[in-house]
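thread from #wetlab-drylab

HS: before we spend reagent money on co-crystallization trials with 2-acetamido-2-deoxy-beta-D-glucopyranose, can we at least see a predicted complex? here's what I'd submit
DV: go for it
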Amino acid sequence: MGMAEGMMRCRCMALLVLVGVAASAVSAVSDGLLPNGNFKDGPAKSELNGTVVMGRHSIPNWEISGFVEYIQSGHTQGGMMVAVPEGASAVRLGNDASIRQNIRVTRRAYYSVTFSAARTCAQAEKLNVSVAADSGVLPVQTVYNSGGWDSYSWAFRAMHSAVWLAIHNPGVEEDPACGPVIDAIAIKTLQPPTKTKGNMLRNGDFEDGPYIFPDSPWGVLVPPMDEDSCSPLPGWMIMSSTKVVKYVDAPRYRVPHGARAVELVAGREAALVQEVRTVAGRSYRLQFYVGDAANGCKESMVVEAYVAAASLKVQYQSQGKGGYRRAMLDFVAVGNLTRVVFQSLHYHMKVDGTLCGPVVDDISLVSVHKRAARRLFM
Ligand SMILES: *[C@@H]1O[C@H](CO)[C@@H](O)[C@H](O)[C@H]1NC(C)=O
Ligand SMILES: *[C@@H]1O[C@H](CO)[C@@H](O)[C@H](O)[C@H]1NC(C)=O
Ligand SMILES: *[C@@H]1O[C@H](CO)[C@@H](O)[C@H](O)[C@H]1NC(C)=O
């Protein structure tokens, strides 16, 4: 019930987006990297003590607080090299440190934020991303990519035309220099929610979602979210305590339909969920693709879909080279609201240690008039 109300609230507010867009003439931030979002412009030498940034305004376009280090590619710590993915520089947020930037946005529009983070010495790192009163604590404890860097996403709705976007490390480690390294912070305007004709689901093809860097080799993780917060993957919620799903795009990955899809990388520990209005007693048909992202995840996969009282396990033998099959599940709604849920039954890992899994895409839900068999499978 909590989730239903939350999603409704988010949807209702979204109706105001069109009005907000029409009324606003000020130029807002454009999609892509934020100004100095990759920390290419660093502090002057005189404003660094070793790697520690000394002034609040020493990094162009950013304001910092606490123990923030400016890390350049090739920097070593405790004998380990800290590799920087985008360009040559990044920042490390020590205990209770934060960075923030004031950005111009369109009031009432929805935005997703993408940034890359790497865990360093602490075991259970977290990052608190916030805009005004909206905030989300993203778990950074599992490394999904063998290189150590992952891109994370978060979403907010702009309540004002200028907002502070902040990333804060709430951690308290013995070594104040422990904490995640952050790089490549980007933003993207999310589309007002629309339904495609002939599909009761919103964004069923996952074409709208967080910003993916054109040269990013690893997709974008969509972390678990509170039931009443906005999703960087419009229409969809990730339900989990700490795990994520991965948003992938063509041509870097193979996707079954359109340009983007979701890879279920956390087994049963994360579920991809959407709630739709249904009429109790009426018959519906859910259809979707299950495939692999052509990322070398050569495994025997199973995606399980749950709707109302029905469920379907879709087997998929991945060669790791891209491929897919269409699955179909007919069911009868038992309530006014039906949750459509997808999970991967197993954990999968590539030989290099990168977590991977089945891809789901082009999910459609339609009302069918005949009382069809409860389960069909193609
Ligand atoms: C630089 O850091 C060292 C070690 O933390 C400290 O002793 C020194 O006072 C700092 N220098 C400046 C100029 O703040
Ligand atoms: C995250 O940051 C926001 C804004 O500073 C704050 O209101 C919120 O309490 C923080 N959440 C946690 C769990 O620290
Ligand atoms: C469905 O909605 C109708 C009208 O809002 C309401 O009367 C009914 O109790 C609801 N049924 C369920 C199962 O929630």
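DV: The longest strand covers residues 283-292.
HS: ok that's useful, forwarding to the group
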